[in-house]
Design brief:
Blueprint (H helix, E strand, L loop, with lengths): L2 H16 L14 E8 L3 E2 L3 H11 L4 E4 L6 E2 L3 E9 H31 L6 E3 L9 H10 L13 E3 L1 H7 L2 H11 L5 E5 L2 H10 L3 E5 L3 H11 L5 E4 L7 H5 L5 E3 L2 H4 L6 E7 L1
Parallel strand pairs: 6-11, 7-8, 8-9, 9-10, 10-11
Antiparallel strand pairs: 1-5, 1-12, 2-4, 3-5
Helix pairs in contact: 1-2, 1-3, 2-3, 3-4, 6-7
Length: 276
Amino acid sequence: MNAADIAAQVRTALAEDIGSGDLTADLIPATNRAEATVIAREPAVICGVAWFDEVFRQIDPSIRIDWRVRDGERVSADQLLCTLHGPSRALLSGERTALNFLQTLSGTASLAKRYAEAVAGTGATVLDTRKTLPGLRLAQKYAVRCGGCSNHRIGLYDAILIKENHIMAAGSITAAVTQARALHPGIRIEVEVETAEELAEAVACTPDVIMLDNHDVPRMREAVAFVAGRIPLEASGNVSLDTIRAYAKTGVDYISVGGLTKDVRALDLSMRFRSR
């Protein structure tokens, strides 16, 4: 993500939280200064440093933040992540928004790391999906990369994924792929298949990727054997940490997991203040 995108996300989040002003922070004398520390309460992969920094930059650029970790770094429970110094009011006003970004993105990165480790050595790549939190897609996809997984398409505009309803509307896989190439030459085309007949038709159309939707492990092995490396294959549907390695060992090239960004649990972080 670029700095402008991060700044825009932070502005929206601060407007949502602070609105016309922080009424509680107004209770603190304007001249008061404080030191604050952020602690990880559980093992994790950190992500979201730039968003955290941007929150306090927009509230009060005089705040100094000294980081002990970087994005993508593993941390242990009770580890110090950073120390902040600045006006008490500004630190208090930015606390929740800054932690929201850091907790959510670190939670995404931490889950991605678990999935990446689950398929290690199989040759399969774990991909995210478009099942992201509204307004945080690019941020979460960055967090997925920090955790060691990879990104699928960013949105509806950068790649073509022909799914069941598209096939029904177009009349066939062949018709849909033909139209895709005519309208958008050079754009990556992926086709979702549910049956052996659809797989055979998709292979004949030679898309860039074929998605095996809701195939169990035996059917996936059969599909891999049939395609025999002619076209990259992606497994999708009902994949969990308990099942992903079995899918990966079938020989598929990619496994997409909506839960990477959809079912994320925020990392447990704590910010503690000390007056100066």
